[in-house]
Amino acid sequence: MTSAPVLYGAPYSVYVRAVRLALEEKGVPYRLEPIDVFAETGPPAALLERQPFGRIPAFEHDGFKLYEAGAIERYVDEAFPGPALQPSAPRERARVNQLISILDSYAYRTLVWDIYVERVSNPRKGRLPDEARIQAALPKAQLCLRAIGELMDGGPCLAGAALTLADLHAAPMFAYFTLAPEAGQLLDDEPAIKAWWAGMSQRPAMHATAPPA
Ligand SMILES: N[C@@H](CCC(=O)N[C@@H](CS)C(=O)NCC(=O)O)C(=O)O
What we know:
Elements (H helix, E strand, L loop, with lengths): L5 E4 L4 H13 L4 E4 L10 H6 L7 E4 L2 E4 L1 H11 L10 H35 L6 H21 L13 H13 L3 H8 L2 H10 L3 H5 L5
Parallel strand pairs: 1-2
Antiparallel strand pairs: 1-3, 3-4
Helix pairs in contact: 1-3, 1-6, 4-5, 4-6
Bound molecules: glutathione.
Organism: Bosea vaviloviae
Enzyme class: transferase
InterPro entries: Glutathione-S-Trfase_C-like (IPR010987), Glutathione-S-Trfase_C_sf (IPR036282), Glutathione_S-Trfase (IPR040079), Glutathione_S-Trfase_N (IPR004045), GST_C (IPR004046), Thioredoxin-like_sf (IPR036249)
């Protein structure tokens, strides 16, 4: 009998939500231990003990401690029963990992920080958006979407017919990105991703993990 895993982080976090989506889709009960990584006093000492780079999420299951969202997601998929979130065929599995790497390396900063945070989040806090940063991000966002769209193998999911960790890794980024008006035009040019997001955003796991307004 194993105990319920504990996820350390905040509901607003893209990467915390990606792990929560994996837990939800697998049907694994878990506890979310709140940690505010953007506290004025800096990342809490308790977080740095679990995640030396001061990022969220961190994770523990039966004494096994882990950080890095992609690694946690793969562990959750492999250690718990429930629907498989990774294909077993090498090429399909490689495609899922390729998409996750693209999301981490190129999409996260561009879609979330350069576009969503500047256009939506900062103005809500009374700060002016950095228009130059947004303009510089638009071709990078277009490139990200085009690359992801080209890898979609007929959909409806990012890595083909079945839901995988690639979808769950991407969805929290798109949840923020699509709040920016710039996303509308960019997604009009990528109908397969637009159709994916229309379905993905309505999954019960997405509703269950929606960040507080
Ligand atoms: N490579 C890390 C990235 C995690 C990450 O960047 N998390 C963000 C929140 S979504 C964070 O902790 N940001 C704090 C900061 O940038 O100081 C992972 O995969 O877990």
